Automatic annotation (TrEMBL):
<dbReference type="Pfam" id="PF01153">
    <property type="entry name" value="Glypican"/>
</dbReference>
<dbReference type="GO" id="GO:0090263">
    <property type="term" value="P:positive regulation of canonical Wnt signaling pathway"/>
</dbReference>
<dbReference type="GO" id="GO:0009986">
    <property type="term" value="C:cell surface"/>
</dbReference>
<keyword id="KW-0654">Proteoglycan</keyword>
<dbReference type="InterPro" id="IPR036790">
    <property type="entry name" value="Frizzled_dom_sf"/>
</dbReference>
<comment type="function">
    <text>Cell surface proteoglycan.</text>
</comment>
<keyword id="KW-0472">Membrane</keyword>
<dbReference type="GO" id="GO:0098552">
    <property type="term" value="C:side of membrane"/>
</dbReference>
<keyword id="KW-0325">Glycoprotein</keyword>
<keyword id="KW-0357">Heparan sulfate</keyword>
<keyword id="KW-0336">GPI-anchor</keyword>
<comment type="similarity">
    <text>Belongs to the glypican family.</text>
</comment>
<dbReference type="GO" id="GO:0005576">
    <property type="term" value="C:extracellular region"/>
</dbReference>
<dbReference type="InterPro" id="IPR019803">
    <property type="entry name" value="Glypican_CS"/>
</dbReference>
<keyword id="KW-0732">Signal</keyword>
<dbReference type="InterPro" id="IPR001863">
    <property type="entry name" value="Glypican"/>
</dbReference>
<dbReference type="GO" id="GO:1905475">
    <property type="term" value="P:regulation of protein localization to membrane"/>
</dbReference>
Amino acid sequence: DLQICQHRAPTCCTKKMEESYQAAVRRERTQNIQALNFELKYMIVGHITAFQEAFESLLRFAENRTSSLFEAAYRPMAKEAAEPVRELFTDLSLYILGAETTVESAVLRFFDSLFPLVYSRLINPGITDLSEDYTECLRLTRQDINPFGRYPKNLVTELSKSMWASRMLSQALSLGIEVINTTEHAALSKECSRALVRMQYCPHCQGLTLIRPCAGYCLNVMRGCVASVSELDAPWREYISTLEFLSGEMAASHDLEAALAGIRTAVNEAVLHAQLNGPQLSATVDKVCGQPKRQEGNLSSDTVVPVKEVTEMQTFVMAHTSLNNKRREFINYMKRSRTFYASLAERLCDGDLVMRDSSTCWNGEDVV
């Protein structure tokens, strides 16, 4: 009553044993593909973690530099500015990780929150009534009167260019893991599991437990079994090319490190611009939002304090050359995996599965 290992000679197998063999080949094939995938998956997961840590480190560094600007130059609003600064960098971090947000919305939200503080602490330090309605009016007015000049728009342009490539690379790495996980659990067709039993276990039914499949026969069987997965060859090669392109974009004109380090300077220039145009801004705001209550006495605004740029860039660059090195090492590894899906059958037949350098092997019907 055998369905797969039918043979003219007497046999020591039963139909139940054939069913056990089918379960065994399914389990073995999954384990074999998992073993082949392991190194590739390990590399991608490792680099997702490394890139994310490097991104977070860059963001924290840039956030600290931006916060220190307010401490150094705009002390009256330093405490209240901490929250908008924190929100800006949280939004940028979420953007890199693939959240449904944009660099533009993050930057403009930051300047919207910053304007009420600049207006009430630096331009008109005598204001005592900063009610919710008045603050909201200042936030909304910011978009119309443009107190910060061209600087918010310039910052959006600079950050969008550099962060786009980082965001895409982060998403592409996650996609790679998804593809590998899916191929590991691709179901075996009935024909494939029967062919694998015939190749690996039918010799056992004749007591030939040490004989192994012929190399050519194994390749034919495995190619049939992984035909659907092998179709990933062309898209996988394209995927590797995309990773190379994104890595190049990150390293070239879209330098994330430089763009994040430049946030401090852009914010400083924007605040200086608002201070220098204080009288005109006050006249416009009074018309739109009304005149707020002022403290008695002659309180002059803080004098404009240009910020002395701290030469931290050297430390910054040194601390993050590791990001470039990791990127290069990762792309070189991924380039070597270009033929991963094209050579799957060959690698599944590698090792101890087939008979090598021997005159006898199993061809599916007999020992040859």
